[in-house]
Specification:
heterodimer, A: mainly alpha, 2 domains, 11 helices, extended, B: 273 residues, alpha/beta, Rossmann fold, 10 helices, globular
Chain lengths: 284, 273
């Protein structure tokens, strides 16, 4: 940049030039994004057997059918709700155990994979890749393999969801860890604390509220995942849902009952999680 | 009457942070509010800027009670009444010029500012203001890359970009070393003298108030206990404001370099020190 400008004029010209460059980059990214959206839509619409626009008006046909049948047999709904509660408990158990082990495992992996906190800084990529692997396989694939090996039931589903939870929570947790203030850790190092002491006493108090809310969000996701795994033979409410939905006419009231139970469960988990989180952050 | 504060009170639950604060300002001046931490200085400035709502009382500026403003009128008042914070309160990951341009947010459309689009004239004016404060060379850097004193001057530049009638400064030098504190206080004084803007600064050190302000207001436990020119601010009055005993020395609350020398002299005069 040798255009003879000096002092303030130099500062101005440089700033305007960098601003123009940033705007250019922003504009290009925006155009790319719009192009991706457009081509993606066209491609999806072409591959779709029905066609997006023709199918759009029928989007509520199936829910309407379920709701109308459930409305006709509304008297049986309370009985059905009670009938499905044991299955719901099984699904919740699978999700809870998977989330609990996933939180502990994810917490440990995240500490080992966060720069500045890791016990063996050179091994950070190793733990990161392990977490990537845990996340890479869909739960349903892991569950199908395990069901093939171990037979149906809740244990394969729990293991499959746990593996995924460790990977996903480890990733979230390590991002939380990166935002943790290292000054308390330095303070503990200065008094001669060991690695586990520094982590447990210096980092965990800072990150615990965020851990909790991520873990509870994961619990919600795991309830859904565990319900889905019921479709492939892991038991619980998903198994009941498959029976209700795929038996055709006459069972939509049962499907509605299962959906009501699932929706209520998610609401309860959400309310509990915000209450717990508030208590933890405010130290009450 | 430019500014008239009438019985402004703020209570948090059962504690009273500011109790019936009353004073009037005839014409633009540089006013220092002194007192211990927790005396209600910050709460008062925050009420004036409408960051905190007052519990009761009136705060008339140019004949209008600014405590009752809501919505767009409140935001327009905030743009007229710039605030400078102890911890600078800049956006750390944005560049210095963008931070200064934030001073125009009240005048610009949300859509344009969200995409960081500002008129060329504003950008040039922002750089001119930075130049006036001696930090034009830092213009393209991220705010977080600057030293504390430089960040505080960026915050002052943001305030000036608002073209405000009043500048409120909440402990502007409490996080700075003596050299930077001097630069920042000189800058605030210069802005008052050159632009005629009213400056109200919370200061926890006596000497800064004495040196830079036309008028000093002393607060203790939420009440105004002193209001007058700096020369009326005797050691006895200072003891009353700070609730200190005989051992209180002005140098003990000082941040200026000259005072540091007197502190050293004082320390060496104390036996065994």
């Amino acid at each position: 940049m040798d255009d003879g400008l000096t002092g303030l004029a130099r500062v101005r010209a440089d700033y305007i030039a960098s601003l123009r460059q940033r705007r250019l980059v922003g504009g290009v990214v925006l155009i790319l994004f719009a192009a991706l959206m457009a081509t993606g839509f066209v491609l999806a619409n072409a591959e779709n057997s029905g066609g997006f626009w023709r199918g759009l008006p029928h989007i509520f046909d199936f829910p309407a059918e379920i709701l109308s049948e459930a409305a006709r047999k509304v008297g049986e709904l309370p009985g059905l709700l009670v009938h499905y509660i044991p299955a719901l408990v099984e699904t919740l158990n699978i999700a809870a155990i998977a989330t609990l082990i996933g939180t502990l495992g994810g917490g440990l992996f995240s500490m080992l994979a966060t720069p500045g906190l890791a016990l063996w800084p050179r091994a950070i990529p190793v733990f990161r890749r392990i977490m990537d692997l845990c996340r890479a396989f869909p739960e349903i694939v892991v569950a199908l393999v395990l069901i093939y090996v171990m037979g149906g039931g809740p244990v394969p589903a729990t293991i499959a969801i746990t593996i995924h939870s460790v990977g996903a929570l480890g990733k979230f947790f390590s991002e939380v860890n990166e935002n943790a203030d290292l000054k308390p850790v330095e303070g503990l190092t200065s008094v001669g604390a060991g690695w586990l002491q520094r982590i447990w006493l210096g980092v965990v108090p800072q990150v615990a509220p965020n851990y909790l809310s991520y873990a509870l969000l994961r619990f919600e996701i795991n309830i859904r995942a565990s319900a889905i795994l019921g479709f492939v033979g892991a038991g619980g409410i998903g198994y009941e849902l498959r029976n209700a939905i795929s038996w055709g006419k006459g069972r939509y009231d049962a499907a509605a009952a299962v959906f009501i139970l699932l929706i209520l469960t998610i609401m309860v988990v959400d309310q509990t999680s915000s209450a717990l989180r508030n208590r933890l952050t405010k130290g009450a | 009457m430019l500014l008239s504060v009438e019985g402004v009170t703020k209570t948090f639950g059962r504690t009273t942070a500011v109790e019936r604060a009353t004073f009037a300002v005839e014409k633009s001046a540089m006013i220092g509010i002194i007192g211990r931490s927790g005396a209600g200085k910050s709460t008062f400035l925050r009420m004036m800027n409408r960051l905190t709502d007052a519990t009761s009382g009136r705060l008339m500026f140019e004949g209008r009670d600014v405590l009752t403003l809501v919505g767009a009128a409140k935001r327009a008042w905030q743009s007229q009444c710039a605030m400078i914070f102890q911890q600078f309160n800049l956006v750390p990951r944005m560049d210095v010029v963008s931070n200064v341009l934030h001073g125009t947010l009240n005048r610009r459309s949300t859509a344009a500012t969200v995409f960081n689009l500002y008129p060329r004239d504003d950008i040039n004016r922002a750089i001119d203001i930075l130049d006036r404060l001696g930090i034009a060379a830092q213009a393209p850097k991220r705010a977080e890359a600057l030293s504390g004193g430089q960040q505080q001057r960026v915050a002052i530049a943001r305030a000036l970009m608002q073209d405000p009638k009043v500048i409120l400064a909440d402990e502007p030098i409490a996080s700075l070393d003596p050299m930077n504190a001097l630069v920042v206080m000189d800058t605030l004084r210069r802005i008052h003298e050159e632009d005629g803007r009213m400056v109200i600064a919370n200061l926890h050190t006596l000497d800064a108030a004495r040196r830079y302000c036309d008028r000093v207001i002393g607060m203790r436990d939420g009440r105004i206990v002193f209001d007058g020119t700096p020369d009326l601010l005797t050691t006895d009055v200072a003891r009353e404001i700070y609730g200190a005993d005989e051992s209180f020395s002005e140098a003990a609350t000082s941040t200026s370099i000259e005072a540091l020398e007197t502190t050293t002299a004082y320390a060496s005069a104390v036996p065994g020190a």
